[in-house]
Amino acid sequence: MASSNELPRTMKALVVKSTSEPPTIETVPTPQATVGSAVVRVLAANVVSYMKNIYNGSRNYAFPTPIIPGTSAIARVATVGPDATKLQPGDLVFLDCVVRSRDDPSDVFLAAISEGGTPGSAKLMREVYRDWAYAEYCLAPESDPYLAHISALLVPYGGLKDIELQAGQTVIVAPATGPFGGAAVIVALAMGARVIAMGRNKDSLARLKKIVPSTDRVHTVPITGDMQADCAKLKKHGEIDAYFDIGPREAQGSTHIHSAILALRQGGRVSLMGGYLQDVPIPHRIIMRRNLRLYGKWMYERSDVADIFKLLESGMLKLGAEGGAELVGKFPLEQWREAWDAAAESALMGQSVLIKP
Ligand SMILES: NC(=O)c1ccc[n+]([C@@H]2O[C@H](COP(=O)([O-])OP(=O)(O)OC[C@H]3O[C@@H](n4cnc5c(N)ncnc54)[C@H](OP(=O)(O)O)[C@@H]3O)[C@@H](O)[C@H]2O)c1
């Protein structure tokens, strides 16, 4: 593998100069590894369904411009900083889009998407790790070498771990038919749980039931808008230990939040990972009387990445078709627009789109 001075001086990258103009392909300087970082050659970078709404500004996420966009990716280490003792050029790695400060892990940001909520996270994004994966090379913080494309699975794992989901327990996942909701079903099954999947669309629920790896441990309950009736249908599946919420902003006001909380057993747990923009009313009296515990989660912890790999290595969690995943399209960097459109149109559980710079 190339040493630092063998890296090309320039590279091809997608550059967002401002949210009011489309990105362009540019030739830019190749990043250089410094103490605490590595430069990786990006092999395949993930595309999330709302990618175009991030970079046209309609999601209103805070990030500096100009910026090389992107999210999690699979890459090979090209060069490492002088203090690396484990990572080697040539290692196959998972480029995690969640970046944390070395000296204060609460300074955390979402690479090239959101600068996070602290002055430290904004500084780290703006001044050090601004550019990301839609380029031939990317500068990344050095961490342990990881091997796969697992970003969708990691997100729900963060929340499911918080609520201590255990083998044999029952968890409601709602809504379960989007990319992250579907991933939550797959991860909960891999953790040994039984899942009650909720969604408005009966066809999407039927598709989910068909592609999950453990059909006998998945039940579906449609969200009908009748909160009490949906709660009664949930309860028909026996004692329910936990509820994992991953509603999009569009589901603000959906009845599923109340139905699911009301269906929980005494001492049940709730993970709130949904992207609601407004406050969400909750059944306070039931939460108080039943000793329910509510956890919020943004993304996942660093240790969760290692846990997910253990689930993969043990065979409990599977990638590819066997694990309910479908690659919808692979695009070169120049076809970024087609990739973003394909991702927006393929927002069903398990579907993914990649950019190969
Ligand atoms: N906390 C975090 O760190 C984190 C990380 C990633 C994502 N998120 C949030 O998670 C959300 C969900 O992600 P996703 O990729 O699974 O799905 P998505 O593509 O954002 O949304 C589609 C899902 O939402 C459901 N839905 C849409 N409108 C609804 C409504 N009005 N009422 C009830 N359900 C509705 C759909 O179900 P139907 O089949 O009924 O249409 C489908 O399950 C994202 O929008 C994001 O805000 C949070």
Automatic annotation (TrEMBL):
GO terms for molecular function: oxidoreductase activity. Pfam families: ADH_N, ADH_zinc_N. Residues 37-143 form the Alcohol dehydrogenase-like N-terminal domain. Residues 181-313 form the Alcohol dehydrogenase-like C-terminal domain. GO terms for cellular component: mitochondrion. PANTHER family: QUINONE OXIDOREDUCTASE-LIKE PROTEIN 2, SHORT-CHAIN DEHYDROGENASE/REDUCTASE. This is Alcohol dehydrogenase-like C-terminal domain-containing protein. It comes from Friedmanniomyces simplex.
